[in-house]
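A reminder from the course coordinator: this example appears on the midterm review sheet, so study it carefully.

Given structure:
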């Protein structure tokens, strides 16, 4: 019984609750519909605002992108210009370096040619000096040879002269000896003749003396 009563009471309360809740629910449903319409309207407005903002943002983004593109193009153009300027500067520096290198090479070539010319000149001067020294040495040698030849000729002449003088001296001595010998021979001959004459005289004297003595004896 108690359980049945409790069930009836619960049912009554539930029905009352349903009726109590149903009325406000209708109101709430109408309000909810209005609110949903407002929300939809608000959503549309918000969507329009968002779309407008999005469009403005897109436009701003597009402007930024366009500006960035322009800036990028300008930057690319500037970079290209800078590259050209850098390339021109590098080319100019390279040209200047090449010119400087060419000048150095030309100066080195001129110096090398000058050095070669100086060496050739020095060789010529050295050859001329050697030739001059050789000529001077040859002249000195020729002078020595000439002096030696003159001395040799003089010596030969002196020897010949000495020989002549010696021969003359020998001849003179021989002549003097011969003269002395001749004188001696002549003196001997004279002496011999004188002796013969004396002997003959003596013989004559002796004969005369004998004759005289004989005559005297005969006279007696």
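Designed residues:
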């Amino acid at each position: 019984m108690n359980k049945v009563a409790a069930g009836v009471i619960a049912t009554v309360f539930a029905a009352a609750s349903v009726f109590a809740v149903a009325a406000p629910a209708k109101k709430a449903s109408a309000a909810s519909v209005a609110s949903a319409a407002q929300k939809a309207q608000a959503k549309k407005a918000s969507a329009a605002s968002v779309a407008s903002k999005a469009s403005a943002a897109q436009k701003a983004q597009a402007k930024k992108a366009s500006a960035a593109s322009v800036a990028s193009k300008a930057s690319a153009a500037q970079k290209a210009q800078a590259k050209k300027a850098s390339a021109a500067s590098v080319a100019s520096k390279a040209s200047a370096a090449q010119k400087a290198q060419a000048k150095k090479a030309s100066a080195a070539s001129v110096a090398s040619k000058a050095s070669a010319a100086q060496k050739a000149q020095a060789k010529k001067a050295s050859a001329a000096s050697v030739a001059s020294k050789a000529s001077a040495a040859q002249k000195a040698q020729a002078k020595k040879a000439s002096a030696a030849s003159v001395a040799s000729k003089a010596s030969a002449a002196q020897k010949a002269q000495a020989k002549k003088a010696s021969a003359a001296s020998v001849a003179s001595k021989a002549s003097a000896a011969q003269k002395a010998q001749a004188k001696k021979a002549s003196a001997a001959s004279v002496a011999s003749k004188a002796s013969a004459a004396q002997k003959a005289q003596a013989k004559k004297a002796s004969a005369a003396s004998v004759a005289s003595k004989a005559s005297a004896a005969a006279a007696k």
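The helical segments are 2-219. The radius of gyration is 87 Å.
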